Prior knowledge:
Elements: H1 2-24, H2 47-79, H3 84-107, H4 110-113, E1 122-124, E2 135-141, E3 144-149, H5 150-156, E4 158-163, E5 166-173, E6 178-183, E7 185-186, E8 189-190, E9 193-199, E10 202-207, E11 213-215, E12 221-223, E13 232-234, E14 237-240, H6 241-247, E15 252-254, H7 261-265, E16 292-298, E17 301-306, H8 307-313, E18 315-320, E19 323-329, E20 336-340, E21 342-343, E22 346-347, E23 350-353, E24 356-359, E25 365-366, E26 372-374, E27 388-392, H9 393-399, E28 404-405
Parallel strand pairs: 3-15, 17-28
Antiparallel strand pairs: 1-15, 2-3, 2-14, 4-5, 5-6, 6-13, 7-8, 9-10, 10-11, 11-12, 16-17, 16-27, 18-19, 19-20, 21-22, 23-24, 24-25, 25-26
Protein name: DUF3179 domain-containing protein
Transmembrane segments: 7-27, 59-78, 85-102
InterPro entries: DUF3179
Amino acid sequence: MKRSFAWFLVPILLLIAVEVLSVYFIMPFPGSQLGLDANNPYETSTARLEWAYWLHQNIVWLRLVGLLLLAYPAYLFLIKPRRAWHRYVAGVLVLAYGVVLYEVNQEMMADHMFLQPITKRVVPMSQNKIPGNKLVIGYEAFGQATAYPIQLIGYHHQVRDTVGGQPVMVTYCTVCRTGRVFSPVVKGQADEFRLVGMDHFNAMFEDKRTGTWWRQATGEAVVGPLRGLGLGELAARQMTLDEWATEHPNTRVLQADPAFADEFAGMKNYDRGLSKGKLTRRDSASWQPKSWVIGVDRSGYTKAYDWNQLQTTRILNDVVDGEPLLLAMSPDSVSFGAWSRRMGVQTLNFQYTNRELTDLETHSVWTWRGHCIAGSLKGRRLEPMPKAYQEFWHSWRSFHPDTQQYTKR
């Protein structure tokens, strides 16, 4: 009977292990999100993802094989046990498998935990109910602008919309503090995506047509048939709704779906870094894993800037990949912009004194939006640098391992 018990024990434990591992590798359990090289945990190794993807693709037949192996031993122990305790042990293990199967596939799957809007409403400012001090991801195309509150898309993780006649996929990962807008068009055809899990604490989506997994922070296909491809990123900006609406008076605004009122309420303090969750709260000190940084990407050359420093100095002058950069913060201390300091053949250098932003070359006065409002350059505008993001330091350095850190001058 010891041998028979092993016949039962091995397949039931393997079935439980398969279910647990299918979510362990792609959800934020202790140790699950790091690279396999313990000496370099931020190395973006794909081995863990490949294991997770293989399990995901083959879970059905793995279950079938396990159940077939379990069938006869289960019959022996549940129907015709030689000892009463055999039936109890077998019953408990079968019940445990049933609980694990339900929890994994109904409660722990990412797309069951974070649902898409049931009733999506995008309205003009005249009908808007979102407070003006809430942070939004703003996107404008072909004369149509839309604001997506972080409090809302932070729960949904993605919202599909049409802006300026083109489909867009607005995404946000609260654990990385990454907001990105992508075109959902893959190889000439708009696809559908579902939240499947996490990679290095970053949201990961699965496309419907091929089952490929895509990383939210970069739009890269990391495992699956389309591995190596990238979603087309669309230039978006993060700021308060008030500031966005000042720039785009005719903007539309995504409204809260009443079906998720409790979930949105739990996100009310996330905007300002006051979340209580271990994975989403902010480190107030600089250059800690959960510290805020502004990451700038220019043609693959990346640099990170300390949010605390920018709040103090209000502006930063620097050069990224040969392009002179101006980072400027709004008077509200949460909205920011990134601009090229080139003005024709001239490179401007900026200073912030007496609450006024001026350039040293012409002494013209500028707004934080890169607009000149007084002086010889009045009416001129700086060109935006589109790939500038606020996010957690651990996220930026994970997906930009060669990034430079700006040091105070």
